[in-house]
Amino acid sequence: MSVDEKTVRHIARLARIAVTDEEVAPLAKELSSILDWVEQLGEVNTDAVEPMASVEEMALAMREDKITDGNIQDKVTKNAPAKDDGFFAVPKVVE
Amino acid sequence: MTDLTKLTLAEARDKLKAKDFTSEELTSAYLGAMEEARELNAYVLETPEKALDMAKASDARLQKGEGGALEGVPLGIKDLFCTEGVRTTACSHILDGFEPQYESTVTSQLWRDGAVMLGKLNNDEFAMGSSNETSHYGPVVNPWKAEGEDKKLVPGGSSGGSSAAVAARIALAATATDTGGSIRQPAAFTGTVGIKPTYGRCSRWGVVAFASSLDQAGPITRTVKDAAILLQSMTGHDAKDSTSVNMPVPDFEKALTGDVRGLKVGIPREYRVDGMPEEIEKLWAQGIDWLKAAGAEIVDVSLPHTKYALPAYYIVAPAEASSNLARYDGVRYGLRVEGKDITDMYEKTRAAGFGAEVKRRVLIGTYVLSAGYYDAYYIKAQKIRTLIAQDFKKAYEKVDVLLTPTAPSDAFGIGEKTDDPLSMYLNDVFTVTVNLAGLPGISVPAGISQRGLPLGLQLIGRAFDEETLFRAGGVLEEAAGFKAEPAAWWRA
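YS: structure for the whole thing
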């Protein structure tokens, strides 16, 4: 298995998804079977191949550096689960 | 009055303009049909009041001889498109109650052209799935059933609500999105037409992001002509999406000339995969014969890296998804589960808000992007992607369009593949290459399986050559003469 239980806990932590003890073993199995399957890409020699950055053969468009939007604080915070005085509210992060 | 829901979009559009009936009448017919078809679970939100208001406004314009290209035409909208003031969740628990304060560019263009919104359509959670079974709102039921069987089948995914609604005639047409086959495979499973345009044709602004380098919007409709009409309104440059291309959009409806004489159609030999059912082989051969009979030239081509497309996709798509879905943190919108500190709040919110398939993909994506693995997985996959795009480029030096099956089977039963993610992923074996290379692809209903279910053929075009897809797709449609409809068992 390419992914063990310790690795599952580590990537779940990186992804900020809580996993229960019961979930870890099945996840290790599922993720391993998917990762073992993608290993077949190793058959292809890609030493001289450029990784694709975009399917589009075009340069990104530039625009004038000026404000085109704004002053919509009410709209921006409209869907927030918790807000305070026009700001998003979160649990205390600084003691 | 005859059943207005039987009309195609093109017919309804013309008859509305001719004042044969009103948009309010047409819209009411659909709202009634939707009510009778709730068992299909195609809509996650019906918006009848909004629909009737929009229909009345359309009628006022039509009465004055005004109105846009879709004036008074009632559509279903996949729940991935943000609709201002109308709940949009991507069918995820984590977006509970989210009411966008803005309208996606694609849908805003539909309303600009006079279309009427019937409601929001079910899809796999964040469009991650090939059967519409990962939706927080439960699976969609395919209106089609196998002959002599009562088993409920999937409508394909991720745009399963869109395909089911169009097949069951509870939307005249629908918007959909396609990251690995999510427009074309559901179209094939339901006897409908679905086109994924070239990457960059439709603005992604306001469409809930899954894998941004692969996601494209497109229509699911009853006919190829309907697809051309609806895609016309969906496309066009948008400065709010940096990957939206700034080039003129041709008149897609005019591309349906019915003439494919001299068209060079490539048959990629690598699409003859192991274990492909005989009836899929037969359908493909039939499609070749139809195009040949219409004067097209058939050419064998090779796309040697085809078998690596799916594994490459299952690195690129989860990697991009893990990054895109980082925004769901319980702070700005949707679900929040309180925790002992902010990290605990994030972790609990995301654990409760994401379903099993979404978690699986976010974790895979996090893994392949993590320190020490980035080159081995992500860069490797992006190199494979270059090779796949080069395969197509070489093929298009010899041919104008490619013909393949859309999916490796007909519709399967609800619950049949949910325990095995890999077997589910294999559904996209013929469609995913197209997303990796950014090309346009259309699925056209072309036959009926031995079990009595629809089968589709796919045409893959050069970048920005949707016109050839509509032209050749129209010829396939005409030759196939697909007129079968699902029995309306849900009306009971």
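YS: worth flagging: Chain B touches chain A through 68 residues (CB under 8 Å).
IM: good catch. Also The radius of gyration of chain B is 21 Å.
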